[in-house]
Amino acid sequence: MAELPCGEFSEFKEALQQLRALDDKIIYKLNTSVPTQSFAGLVSADERCKQLYEEMKAGYLARPAAIQHCIDRTSERVMELRTQREGAGGDDPATNKALRKEQTKLRLMQSELAVEDVIRERSTKVCR
């Protein structure tokens, strides 16, 4: 499983973009993977496409698991902060601010799972 940094959302997003590089450049990769007629006898287009699909498939399995891992860690942190806030009677501004920040990060990470579905659908459609 690919390991994503879960602490700061900007680092999480940047690492996720790197993991999505193949999907972002799928049309280019397909065009460079399929040989022209002059090279058709030297390189198997079917084999190259299969190899590219296997790379994409590995990403489809690893990325959602890595995102879910960060969602789980952030959810735990939100629960800790809620407990801490309740213990302080809800009056600690620093705890309230940290809780809001973690809740926002959690929502953004959850939205990345939906983005993952869109990316997967688009890349699969292009491959076909």
From TrEMBL:
User: Which cellular components does GO assign to this protein?
Assistant: mitochondrial intermembrane space
Q: Which InterPro entries match?
A: MIX23
- Please indicate which superkingdom the organism of origin belongs to: Eukaryota
The family database entries (Pfam families) matched by this protein are listed as: MIX23
| Similarity-based family | Belongs to the MIX23 family.
Q: What is the designated name of this protein?
A: Protein MIX23
Organism from which the protein derives: Geodia barretti (Barrett's horny sponge)
